[in-house]
Amino acid sequence: MTMQKKLITLFTLLALWCLNVSVNAQENKGIAFLPEGTLFKDAVAKAQQTGKMIFLDCYTSWCGPCKMMSNTVFPQEKVGAYMNPRFVSIKIDMEKGEGVELAKKLQISAFPTFIFFNSNGEEIGRFLGGCDADKFIANVEKNSTDNGSADMDKRFAAGERDPQFLMQYLQTLGSAYKREQCNEVAEILLDGKAETFAADKTLADVFMKHISNPFCPAFVYTAKHPEALIAQVGETPVRMKLYSVWNTYPRTLVSTDANGNTTLDQADFDKWLALMEECGVGNREELRLTTLLDYTEKKADWTAYVNYLTEYVKATDPNDLFLCKRCTPVAENCKDEALRKQVAAILQQRVDDLKSGKRQPQTQIGNMKMSGNMGKVMEMLIQGLETGEMPKMR
């Protein structure tokens, strides 16, 4: 090789190297997240070494806004310029590995959730939801300023129960969407006042905003005697609150560990059913079967799922939309031909009833108007269940 060719080759390689460096530098202008798989404790160690705060992006693989933030907001240069000097940044999937336990510990209820910690790993603020770059920076600025929540946590753990402090603490917890802790503090404020709290506007507001435990004495009393609270805040809000607590509580009884094993707390499930019967909850059978359907779907126990689905259809007569919703997991995930045919038969009966006029097509559910023909959707699901190939929903 001549000297001239050697120089050309050298310059070419140098140019390619410079281009690669330039591209990588451009790619790294956004938030400099720690490598995937980094544990939260390692982020804390790095924060202590550098004196920075910690930014935790709590996401899931299926969350659309999470993907939007990751793809369009976090890579922006102005976002990186703001975040990198201030934070050790880490992303953790809340449904995998360490994320499963972190989600419980941090009381994550929606995605994406962005949490800020001081260098000792103590939470100082958080906010939820996707947004553009400017709004993200503004939200970080607002929520990463230490609001004293870590100090309030310590005071509460040490036994401080002054009502004024508890109200301030409840406000701080509420702004952080810490539902379980909000309920705990609210129960303390309502302790011994189950029959009288409704007359106090402040305590009634505490109940309406923060009680999520159906076994709370104030909730049990209100479920049996709602008249006093209805007089304070109105019938519709009270009925909606009662329904929300009965409906939401069983979700806390189904859990999935880091290895993907799903379990149901049967003892508390039975207590919840008994309490609903004691309180005369009219739709308790629907709530029981809904919980069991959710549980067996997560376990991929399709035999049990189809049995509960059959029972659900007979007991609750679900509307067309929810019937399709409950049949779709079988069409998409169950490989057992006999079970698929059983679900196809359930849908076919509904289609036949609609065609014969025995049932009328549903055009509205509550305040929501139906935009599509659910009969057509059911026919497509039947086809998918029978052929094993789900058609495209248009």
Task: Please explain how this structure is put together.
By secondary structure, the chain is an alpha+beta fold. The protein has three domains: 40-146, Glutaredoxin, CATH 3.40.30; 152-248, no CATH class; 300-387, no CATH class. The chain has helices spanning 3-27, 40-50, 64-73, 77-83, 98-105, 133-143, 149-157, 163-175, 179-190, 201-210, 217-224, 227-233, 235-248, 266-278, 284-299, 302-316, 320-333, 337-356, 374-387; strands at residues 53-59, 87-93, 113-117, 123-128, 254-256, 262-264, 364-365, 368-369. A hairpin with a 5-residue loop joins strand 3 and strand 4 (123-128). It starts with a helix and ends in a 7-residue tail after the last helix. Residues 1-26 have low confidence and may be disordered.
Task: State the share of residues found in helices, binned by percent.
Answer: 55-70%
Mean pLDDT: 90
Give the SSE order as H and E letters: HHEHHEHEEHHHHHHHHEEHHHHHEEH
**What portion of residues belong to β-strands?**
5-15%
Tell me the count of domains: 3
Provide the spatial order of strands within the biggest beta sheet. Answer: 2-1-3-4
Largest sheet: 4 strands, mixed
Low-confidence stretches: 1-26
